[in-house]
Write a structure and sequence with these properties.
The chain is of the alpha+beta class and about 1250 residues long. About 45% of the residues lie in helices and about 15% in strands. α14 runs parallel beside α17, α16 runs antiparallel to α17 and α33 runs parallel beside α35. The chain is elongated and about 185 Å long. It starts with about 25 loop residues before the first strand and ends with a helix. One of its GO terms (biological process) is protein import into nucleus. Pfam families: Nucleoporin_C, Nucleoporin_N. Keywords: mRNA transport, Nucleus, Protein transport, Translocation, Transport.
């Protein structure tokens, strides 16, 4: 049993030697006079002090019959409360500064006593009966001792004659105090024997080992060993000390001295550990014959003979570890078969240090300690056949041999220890303890107890919760010959390394008992055991971590396997959801049971976060944990709502019916299922809460509006609870949105909520219940919010990069978005109609549906803007969302003919509306939209003449009213001229376009004037009748069509005439037909006008354009009575020429031939054979979209009749003669 000691003199300052010379043994009695001794008998013989081998082992007994308090439990280890510390010890340790005043301790299972000591005081008590505490003074440091105080080394002295043991305390400067009985501690502990080891300058003690009841070994920093022997003199026990040296042999001759082989000498160095080995032969009473003593001096393992006090062998473990930096020996132990276990430490490499730091302490940051020492276990065995085993070189491997003094040792293995100290750790010397003869090594650090198995890859550890205020002071192991506490007879019969073994753990706050199942440790399977260990660790965290009295802190070991972590965490979370009885205690109170399960899951994620292990978990695993927690929270809220429903006086629950229907469709296959289907659902089927929603919706469809309050409210509660829990705990679980296949937005959930919204809408808008308060109207806003949230959540998932791997995800995303875009405005408008406008505005804003938001705010008075009841809200949204919202306001005003609203807002002093209008124009044009009908007004106001003119030209082309078209073209032309006047470049193409368009308007205005004159003869009501006016025009202008029974052409002419009489603008093709289909008795120039208009048209498909040219020429040729004209009997050539000049053909040529550019356009000049082609049916339908099929046929027949008429006239010679005549009249012949 040893207290912490420095590892090396260069790492810790060497204590300065006292100027006081070493004192010899003396008896000190500080007991006050008159105070009787509590000793009932004196120790008079050496036989009163027993060897360890002869002592009857202390038999622990079960304390009481109550339930034990567990602090931790896995399949391999369980830790429970054993006993409280005495009041005096708790008082001293409470608030102790372990950095400035180290403490040490031990639990001695030989004597049954526990010990805790500081540099000043030593406390000893029976560990199962802490009511009596023995307080003994420690050896004081010398007056001139400049180093920080150090706790003494200690050893309890077993006694057969009394129940209380004795005590030996050894200070770091070599002062020893011995009490033959600790009962002296009840009276101040002043009666003790004091001796001093004769240490050299700069030398200090480094350890104390009890060999048996009489012999103790002390070690020093200079590599020297002292033998302390307990003897009886004059009825009193005394302690003597001498330096380790071979005893002189009587009768040894000079010759034998000269020829004898000298004993090997040890390499001196700081001895950091002592261990008792197993020698050959019988051990006599009071004699340690043939026993071996193992010491660890720096990195050298030394084997000594206790009987001869000579060095038997020495090897350096550095060769076993290999090339590491700053290797130090820390502690050693001897297994039952003689195998040596050495604990070493070294400075980790940069990569190793970083990995250990991340695993043990989380992310680096401010105040995060960086590991500085890493630990490993080296197992060595005696090498008896050195010639058969190759020399081990380089370290780090098994099977090699380390050569040294007195022989070599075989390397059995090197194992890493899952722990690393840091600069922030309290000073302490780690110590190892062997369990099961070495089957498990327990390594005690200042704040962690690590277990490493010999025969399996098992490793685990116990960590203190508050290392700054708590420490592991010492351990005590029940020896194999002792029956383990709370063990069955079968367990006691198991062999070494197979059954359980108990370890006492003394901390600054409590004494715990750990039971290690050596059999389970030995059969630990690495393939599955890692995940099982992680799950067990997580289970402990949520079961025992919440206990404020638990001194243990649960943390992951360094380099925790990510896959094992995720598997263990997910499995534990699912076990909580399914009410696993090993984790969740059965409870008839379901509310309490649900609360307990919620707490378990909260502790689970808190534990993962506290250990900085969340970064090792994949996003899918994190979301599974978050989903389990939110489902449990949603079920808890649903259960509370169901209880409220029944507590309010309801005798029946439709939610209960839904759960029964769900269970009937999907039976529960659980061994713990009961007759209470509802409670079983909440106990075992929380994970299926999403599948319950469709069954709840069916209750609404079956019952009607009466089910809306309960069932609709229940579904809203489920989804709202889940979504709010998720949003609140995103950072806790490290969830990165969007969720992967979220259960709250599966198609079945979305469809169910939409059905509820439809039902609530139908019930809320029922005219018969307009003035009554109903549940549907109240729930509509909440259900709409849930529907929007579910739809948006699924859209986010389908649009995420992860979902691209899902088949059909892109198609589903497009379809769902179109569906949402269609439903969203309808639902928002329904909310407005049902007095939920604030909710509608909130939903529209949260989903960035600014178009719907603008529409909702303009359903009342909109002009002037100041009279809009939502004017202030509009301003707030503009300030909040800027142009995204403002542009939608502009759009709404333009689309609904209220552009004056935005112009008024601009004029009222908010000039930013002009900017928003410009942005809207640009956005619309960028998307191929048109906004010229309003935008030109702002362009004119801003002096953008060219832009305004271009807009007006475009808008005029699509204007449906002749007057409007004329106005736009006129203003546009003026704007273009204004630009030229300001010095801008003239755009001839734009000017020509204005001229052509204005000419076209003039043509329509002239035709309209002719038609109105034709209908001027109407009187009375007929004058006001549009149909009468149309008929009058047709009678006056369509005599030829009526005579030739051209029903198709007559029908379309009626349509066009009717439109013109209404003031509507015709398309160019329509105007061409009107110009050429009327009689033109006095207006033959209309044919040339039609050719001119058609020649300059740019937006007509070429095929239809050529067909129109052919129709015009057919009508030109059919206009005159050519048979009469060509009748030449008694007609002079001059008369014939006069007849030709009176034809429409001559008039048309007279207009087109003077312009070479016009006449050279294809179709403008066609002879009779070139105009005979007739439009096909598809072309006719394209030309006159929407007309009846019968009229299409009539038109086709009329077109054929026109062409047939021209063909029958045989006008080829006439065409050339008239054309030549026109050329002669124009003077081309004279020029020739």
């Amino acid at each position: 049993m040893a207290s912490p000691a420095p590892r090396k003199t260069h790492r810790y300052a060497t204590p300065r030697q006292s100027v006081t010379p070493p004192r010899q043994r003396r008896m000190v009695s500080a007991r006050p006079a008159g105070t009787p001794s509590r000793r009932t008998e004196d120790i008079t013989t050496v036989q009163d002090v027993m060897d360890v081998d002869d002592l009857q082992m202390y038999n622990e007994r079960v304390l009481g019959s109550g339930r034990e308090t567990l602090y931790a439990r896995t399949d391999e280890i369980s830790v429970a409360f054993h006993a409280a510390l005495p009041f005096e010890v708790r008082r001293e340790l409470k608030g102790a500064d372990f950095y400035s005043q180290p403490w040490t301790g031990a639990v001695d299972t030989i004597t049954g006593y526990a010990l805790a000591a500081s540099s000043n005081t030593c406390f000893v008590w029976h560990h199962t009966k802490p009511t009596t505490c023995y307080i003994l003074p420690c050896p004081p440091p010398p007056p001139d001792y400049a180093q920080p105080p150090s706790a003494p080394f200690h050893a309890l002295v077993p006694s057969r004659s009394r129940s209380e043991p004795g005590l030996v305390l050894l200070s770091i400067r070599g002062d020893i105090r011995f009490w033959d009985s600790i009962t002296s501690g009840l009276a101040g502990g002043g009666s003790f024997e004091s001796i001093n080891l004769e240490l050299k300058e700069g030398e200090y003690t480094s350890g104390l080992l009890r060999v048996d009841g009489q012999i103790y070994i002390a070690s020093t920093s200079h590599g020297r060993l002292f033998r302390l022997t307990l003897t009886s003199q004059s009825g009193r026990h005394t302690l003597s000390a001498r330096l380790f040296a071979p005893p002189p042999a009587p009768g040894l001759s000079l010759a034998r001295l000269l020829w004898s082989t000298p004993a090997p000498q040890p390499t001196l160095g700081n001895i950091s550990a002592l261990a008792l080995g197993f020698g050959r032969g019988e051990v006599g009473r009071g004699i340690a014959a043939d026993k071996e003593l193992w010491t660890l001096s720096e990195t050298r393992v030394q084997r000594w003979s206790l009987n001869k006090e000579v060095l038997l062998g020495e090897v350096d473990v550095r060769e076993a570890v290999g090339s590491v930096e700053d290797l130090e020996g820390v502690d050693l132990g001897v297994e039952s078969d003689g195998t040596l276990v050495v604990l070493v430490s070294y400075a980790g490499s940069e990569q190793e240090t970083a990995a250990m730091a991340l695993d043990q302490y989380g992310e680096f940051g401010m105040g995060v300690p960086v590991p500085r020492r890493i630990y490993a276990l080296v197992r060595l065995s005696a090498s008896t056949k050195r010639v058969e085993v190759p020399m081990f070189e380089g370290g780090g491997g098994d099977g090699g041999v380390i050569e040294g003094i007195g022989g070599g040792m075989k390397i059995e293995g090197v194992t890493g220890v899952p722990y690393a100290t840091t600069a922030a750790s309290a000073p302490s010397h780690p110590r190892l303890t062997l369990l099961g003869g070495g089957a498990v090594v327990a390594i005690r650090f200042v704040d962690v107890l690590v277990f490493c198995a010999r025969d399996s890859p098992y490793q685990d550890r116990l960590t203190l919760k508050s290392p700054n205020t708590d420490q592991i002071l010492g351990l005590g192991v029940l020896l194999p010959t002792q029956p383990p506490m709370h063990s069955s007879p079968a367990e006691q019969e198991q062999g070494e390394g197979v059954g359980p073994e108990d370890v006492f753990i003394l901390t600054a706050g409590v004494l715990m008992r750990a039971r290690v199942d050596l059999g389970r440790v030995k059969t630990f399977d690495e393939a599955t055991g890692r995940a099982i260990l992680i799950r067990a660790l997580l289970t402990q965290a949520i079961l025992y971590g919440s206990n404020p009295e638990n001194p243990l802190h649960f943390s992951f070991p360094p380099e925790v396997d990510a896959e094992a972590l995720m598997t263990g965490a997910e499995g534990l979370s699912r076990a909580v959801l399914e009410s696993d009885p090993e984790i969740i205690r059965p409870n008839h109170d379901l509310t309490s049971q649900l609360t307990s399960r919620k707490d378990r899951l909260s502790w689970l994620i808190r534990f993962i976060n506290d250990n900085a292990a969340l970064r090792k978990m994949s996003q899918r695993s994190r979301q599974r944990l978050a989903t389990d927690a939110e489902k449990l929270y949603a079920c808890h809220q649903l259960w509370l709502k169901m209880n409220e429903h029944l507590d309010a006086g309801a005798s029946h629950s439709l939610v209960t019916d839904a759960i029964h229907a769900f269970t009937a469709a999907h039976p529960l296959l659980h061994t713990s299922a009961s007759h209470d289907v509802v409670r079983d659902f909440f106990r075992f089927r929380v994970a299926e809460i999403g599948r319950l929603i469709p069954f709840m919706v069916e209750q609404v469809e079956r019952v009607g509006e009466g089910a809306m309050r309960e069932v609709g409210g229940a579904i809203a509660t489920i989804l709202q609870a889940a979504l709010s829990y998720r949003a609140y705990n995103l950072a806790v679980y490290g969830v990165e949105l969007p969720m992967i296949k979220p259960w709250t937005s599966r198609p079945s959930a979305i469809d169910g909520v939409l059905k509820l919204v439809d039902s609530a809408t139908r019930f809320a808008l029922d005219p018969s219940k307009a003035n009554t308060k109903n549940a549907s109207r109240e729930l509509l806003a909440e259900l709409a919010s849930m529907f929007f949230a579910c739809m948006q959540e699924r859209l986010d998932w389908l649009g995420s990069p992860i979902a691209t791997d899902e088949p059909g995800s892109e198609r589903d995303h497009i379809e769902l978005k179109e569906r949402f875009d269609q439903l969203r405005p309808e639902i928002l408008e329904t909310l407005r109609l049902t007095s939920h406008l604030p909710n509608a505005l909130t939903l529209a804003a949260s989903h960035a549906d600014f178009r719907s938001l603008a529409a909702l705010l303009h359903q009342d008075t909109v002009y002037p803007p100041s009279c809009n009841p939502h004017a202030h809200t509009i301003e707030e949204y503009v300030d909040r969302f800027g142009g995204m919202f403002a542009r939608e306001v502009v759009r709404w005003c333009v689309v609904h003919g209220e552009a004056r609203v935005v112009f008024a807002m601009e004029e009222s002093g908010r000039g930013e509306w002009g900017k928003y209008m410009d942005e809207y124009w640009a956005e619309e044009e960028g998307q191929g939209g048109k906004c010229d009908a309003v935008a030109w007004l702002r362009d004119l106001g801003q002096g953008r003449w060219s832009v305004a003119g271009t807009r007006l030209l475009r808008e005029a082309n699509g204007a449906g009213d002749v007057a409007v078209k004329h106005f736009m073209l006129s203003v546009g032309k003026l704007a273009h001229l204004a630009r030229m006047q300001e010095g801008g470049d003239a755009d001839d193409a734009i000017l020509d376009a204005f001229h052509d368009s204005l000419d076209f308007v003039s043509v329509q205005e002239r035709m309209l004037q002719d038609f109105r004159e034709a209908a001027s003869s109407l009187r009375g009501k007929q004058k006001q009748s549009l149909d009468a006016q149309t008929d009058a025009v047709i009678r006056a202008k369509g005599t030829r069509l009526r005579a030739e029974r051209r029903h198709g052409l007559l029908g379309i002419m009626k349509i066009f005439v009717r439109q013109m009489l209404q003031g509507k603008a015709l398309s160019l093709e329509d105007a061409v037909d009107v110009l050429t289909l009327q009689d033109n008795v006095e207006g033959a120039e209309n044919y040339a006008t039609a050719l001119h208009l058609l020649a300059h048209a740019e937006d007509i498909p070429d095929a239809r354009r050529q067909s129109s040219f052919r129709r015009i020429w057919c009508r030109v040729y059919n206009h005159d009575d050519w048979n009469s004209i060509r009748e030449t009997t008694n007609i002079t050539d001059a008369q014939l020429t006069s007849r030709f000049r009176a034809t429409a053909l001559y008039t048309t040529f007279s207009v087109i031939l003077p312009s070479p550019q016009l006449s050279q356009i294809p179709g403008v000049d066609l002879d009779p054979n070139e105009c005979l082609s007739v439009p096909l049916m598809p072309e006719i339908k394209s030309r006159f979209p929407g007309i009846q099929e019968e009229m299409v046929g009539d038109l086709a027949r009329d077109y054929r009749a026109e062409s047939s008429g021209v063909e029958g006239l045989r006008l080829a010679d006439v065409y050339h003669r008239v054309r030549e005549l026109v050329m002669l009249d124009l003077g081309y012949a004279r020029e020739g």
